[in-house]
Every structure is written in structure tokens, then in C-alpha cells.
């Protein structure tokens, strides 16, 4: 309700005037089963919280009213909703004919209800045969229809029903970018499509930290531990009932062999469910010591059960959609969910025709923990949907319009009818500061937060989480959709696992640190981590001079010297994630000592620390300051003073800079002879002071075949943050599920 109280009063007044003088939108929400109620309930709560805008009528039908399926209408009453009408529409038999007769019975009963209610709009969810009856009735009675979760792809007859409802519906709320594109391809009006995310995620993403052990014990027994049980939910496949029953039998055999405590939920009311229940009873599942068989679990409790399970198995859409929000491993059996977008937590067993295949999948998945996925929502769907409802102009013609190809380029719509900016949370862990930014797809830093980097691991991680949570919350206000978190940090990083293996001396207590897991768990977002030099190269590849270049090298010249290598458009990490430690190329056998413990490294000559060291030597010998320079007593000598002195004619300072530039140039020559890139990009605060010296060394020392290389200074203001953002933006926008 906090979302809704914060809406602008002026905007509310404009909407009221648009729909007539203080006319409330009469919304009918029709729910058919436990699954669609979990998606509709958050919307119903939102509508109920704004009585000045909406009147809510609730119609209950379908399996909600059947004892064998748990009489789930009671949970609607427990949520304090007034049920206006109960319609018994299910014809028992659980076969194909019974499904058709159920649709027919609903079509007979619904007109009377809709005539009495006279809603302005009906909200219909999903792809069930009951929902098809609702949409057909409303369309024929000239009632506007808002369809939730259109455009998605899956197996069985559900696909056809979902798309049929799409063609009947006047407005569409979809959950993913792909679903939105499918709706557009189906010629739906661009202006009537809202990409909001799944409403159930508004509840999911705030649920995991609640007390859960009592719920687990209630459903599975006192001796069960988290991550040590399985949730099984399998429905019949109406287009191949015989095979789906056989697959369910094999699944139960595999679960019995796997010998873990398992919560089995009864299947839905589709054709074939009666036979599946017979299989359960034939195998004694209801009396087996390892199994708990139940008809229904309240959604709040079901969330906790799957969030802390060792694995979920079956073919329910819940497994491939909602469970990804917790990173719980999922085994998706058969073809019922074919085509759905899934996170990396889902293992597909398409041809589940043997017990061994399913058992092997259980052995692979059980007990794992994956990064949390937000493919289907970011927790802000309901406020978007409510604003969308308020924008509906009842004076507009009811007749649908179809947009046949060619389609427009800019077609998406969010709560303000403007394309929400796909963005990343970028984190830069420097030796001094910790920075977090919201970065758009175009490389614009929308908002940036900066704090001093704490000295201890615990304080540092706590501050990262705090800053990221603050930024993620602010993203909604600045109209940004966060796709994930990218982290740039000093040291050697294993990007596959999201672990800092060991760090430089500039960042203390930063070795063997798993950054991905705690941040992903807290934000329910995928997380990527890489070395700051590699991130600088990625920033150049996406936003800078490296865009479209097949082979190039980036050198960072700052407090230390780092870099990244892009070869054939891909970043090189090396066999032990130590590639592109360019600052530690040795250019002299007896040079100054480096922080790495060696001598003669580029970093020992050309880094900010090295220049500061030489500046202190000159200052201690009273050879640094020249005419036009002054320093306060408490002022710390830095590399900037050395550069200033060189510019004002201090020959000793100038010689130090020349030596540093030569050392960097020799390192670049070695890189040219090893990697043969077509471009070298100098990045960082010292880049502009070194570029001329580097070019001179290349002309003197490099082989003629590589002298034509371009050496440029980066034009990116913040490569570390932009590189961290590109970790997210490159991956999430090109990934194929």
C-alpha cells in the first residue's frame, strides 16, 4: 500500500477528469485456481488499497470450489476479499471431454453474472481453459479485457488458449521482453501493451527472509533441514496424456530411490489428473515415510518451501518462473514448459523416458544454489499495472485495433508510457573509494553514490549491500529497470564463480571472497564480477574507442598499472585468471622494486605510486618545488606535484616522467610483439601525460610490422563503472535461454 499512497495527487486528479467526473473504474477480477490467484492477489490488494479510484468485484470459479483440489476459495476469504459470485463450472471426469464441457458450462453461467456486475474492465490471467471462457464471455458482452501474462510460450494446449485470449483482450500486461515482442508480432496495439513483470514477484522478492522453519516443519516434519528436501509438482500434458502419466510414474520411482523427504502436490484439474492421482495411490505415496502428499499449500507458505528446498521437480510453470527468484535448483520434466524463458537454475529433461535419467538429474541438481534470477519481474509490477489501469480512457472506442507489420521501433511502455531504461547496477571497488552507479544501456551514469572503502571485509560487504539496495530502490524512481549487478575490483578474480581470489595491497582483507552469492541473495539479481583492468577493456569495447574493433588492448594508468586484452571481440582471462596483468611486464632487470615483490615492472616506474615515491625523494632533497609552485606544511606530496613541476621546467621531474613514459612504452612494445592488436587505448588519470612518450618508443623500438598501431587516450569519464555495467548489459541482452 505504500506504493499507492505516494502517487501524485495532481496526476490522480487528471486521471479522474479523463474518465469523467470522479468516475471509479469498476474492475472484475475472476480467478479459477490456486495458481492464477497467486498472480492476481497482489493486483487485487493494490486495487483494494485505492477505493477512490477503483471498485473491486471478485468472481470465483473453476477448481477453487472443488474439495479434491483443496477448496482454495477459502484462501481468498482469508485474504479478506469479498467474493461477489461463486460459479461451479467444473464438469468432473478429468478427461478431454470434461474440459470442453466445463468451458461450455462457464459460458452458460457467466453472462448473468456479468450483466449484474456491469464491470468497466475484466482482468483475466494466463492460459487455462476456464480463462478462455471468461475472455470469450467478456468480449461478446462488450466488456474490456486486461490479460495478464500474454505473449509467453510453453507446451501443450495452454499455448493455443493463451494466444486465443490475447486476440480477445483489449489490454495486455506481459512479464518479459520476449513476451512483449511476441505480442507485437501478433499485431497487438503497441500502446496497449505494458511490460510490467509478474505480479507474484512483488510478493516473492520480499518473502525469503521471513521465518520459514516452522512452515517447513509443519509440512515436512520436525526433523527436516533446509536444502535437504524436495518439492514435486507435476501436471498432466493434455496433448499427450498417456506419456505424461508414464513420466509421472517414473518421477515417483526416481524420488523413492533418491530417498529424500519430498512434498508432493496433487496435479491440477486438467485431463489426465485422475490417472496421475491413481499412480500416486498405487505406489503408496500418501503413506510412504519419505513423502507428504497434499492437495494445496497456501501461496505464502509455498514460497518459503520452494525458497529453502534442495530442489524442485516437475513440469509446473512455477518451477521455471517463480522459483528462479530464489536460485533454488529446478528439474523441468517433459515438454509442458517448452519455450519458456528460464534462469540457469533450471535443468531440462525433455525426454524423461527412464527412471535413470530423472535420478541422474536429481543427483546433479539437489542441494545446489544458483544466482537469483529476475527474468520475470523486479518486484514493482503492481504499481505499474495500477497506473496502467488508471490511464484507460473509457471514452475510447471499444473495438480492438491490430497493428499489422511493419512495426514501430520504439514500442514498449511502462508506468509513464515511456520505455523504461534497461540499466545495470555498477560497483567499483577502488583502493580509496567504493562507488555504486545506475548505468543505462547507452552508458549514461544516471545516478552515482560514493563512500570511503572500509578497511575490513565485514564492513565493506555491508556497505556494498547497503549502497546497492539504495540504488536499486532509486532505480524505480528514475525509470530504470535493473538487469543485474556488475562489480569491478582490484586483484585476481574468478569471473565464473564471482570470487576475488586475492587482491592488491591497496584493498585489505579481500582474498578468497565470494561476492556473487551474498549480493545476489540480497538483491535477487544476477551478479557478475571481474578485475578492474578487464572492466576497463569491456567499457572500451561497448562504449569507447574499442567499439567494433576485433583486437585491442587497454592500459590503465592510475594508482597502479592494469589492463585488459580483447582478442577476436572476446576478453581474455587466461587459464588461472591472470591474463592482462600488464603492469607487471618487466622492462628492466635491475629496476625499482614493485609492490608485487619483483623488480623492474612497468608499475614500479609508471604508476601513480611510483611517481609519488620519486616526487617524495625530490621533495626531501628540496629539489621538487620550482617558481610558481607552493605546498602547505601538512600537504602530502603526490604524483600531481611531480607533473606540475615538470610542466614548470623542473628538469629532474621531467626526466622522471620521461623514464616512466619510456618504461610504459617498452611494455606496450612487448604487448604489440605478443598480441599484435590494431589499437592500444591508454586509460586513467596519467594517460594523457604518457601518450606521446609511448608513441615515440614504438617508433624507435617496435618491429616495422606493428608500428602502424593506433595509440589513443580513452575518452571515457568513468571506465571502471562503465565496464562493470557492461558485464551485465552485454550478457543479459544477448543471452538465449
UniProtKB/TrEMBL annotation:
An N-acyl-D-mannosamine binds at residues 492, 504, 532, 581, 584, 603. It is found in: Cytoplasm, Cytosol. Pfam families: Epimerase_2 (PF02350), ROK (PF00480). In the C-terminal section; belongs to the ROK (NagC/XylR) family. In the N-terminal section; belongs to the UDP-N-acetylglucosamine 2-epimerase family. Keywords: Allosteric enzyme, ATP-binding, Cytoplasm, Hydrolase, Kinase, Metal-binding, Multifunctional enzyme, Nucleotide-binding, Phosphoprotein, Transferase, Zinc. Pathway: Amino-sugar metabolism; N-acetylneuraminate biosynthesis. One of its GO terms (cellular component) is cytosol. One of its GO terms (biological process) is UDP-N-acetylglucosamine metabolic process. Its EC number is 2.7.1.60, 3.2.1.183. Transmembrane segments: none annotated. It comes from the Eukaryota. Gene3D superfamilies: 3.30.420.40, Glycogen Phosphorylase B. The gene is Gne. SUPFAM superfamilies: Actin-like ATPase domain, UDP-Glycosyltransferase/glycogen phosphorylase. Zn(2+) binds at residues 584, 594, 596, 601. The active site is at 532. Residues 53-390 form the UDP-N-acetylglucosamine 2-epimerase domain. Homodimer. Homotetramer. Homohexamer. The hexameric form exhibits both enzyme activities, whereas the dimeric form only catalyzes the phosphorylation of N-acyl-D-mannosamine. This is Bifunctional UDP-N-acetylglucosamine 2-epimerase/N-acetylmannosamine kinase. One of its GO terms (molecular function) is N-acylmannosamine kinase activity. It catalyses: an N-acyl-D-mannosamine + ATP = an N-acyl-D-mannosamine 6-phosphate + ADP + H(+); UDP-N-acetyl-alpha-D-glucosamine + H2O = aldehydo-N-acetyl-D-mannosamine + UDP + H(+).
